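Batch job 17 of 40 flagged for manual review because the log was empty.
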Amino acid sequence: MGEVLRSPVTGNAVLLTPRSGSHSLASAAITAWYPNTVVPDGQHPAGSLPPESWNGESGFGLIVRNPVERFRSMVAHRPWRTLEEHLDAPAYGRLPKGTFARYFRFEDQLNEAAEWLGLPTPLPQEDATNEADKPMLTAEQEARVRGIYAEDIALWESLQ
């Protein structure tokens, strides 16, 4: 997946993170700005955007999702691994650390992120995980997730 979604309209950019609206934002960008782009079957649409890597520079936006919910979505999105395997080695790491111009909460500010980029809203929901496919975590499992993503939890809670 491409790391950065930069708007040719506003010049603003967000750092894309898995299971945090990246599919919806990238699909909307292709529809709005690159309509002749064909996304190969099974490929994340961000892979078809103009490539740009993030080198830790400031000024980017970041979508922040409740880390426990992001983990549950990751597990459901990769069902060939057991919950225990995900707890031992999560497929998606912690959020990147840097100086970000804007933070957007996935749960209720994804449309604001789209507007900041100059994308039409409301943003279509793409690649959403069915709630029934997400595992219910025991108190011990949730505590492990909170430990793994402790810095992300602190960031998430600071945005509430």
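Reviewer: the log was empty due to a logging misconfiguration, but the result itself is present. The chain has one domain: 4-158. Unflagging and moving on to job 18.
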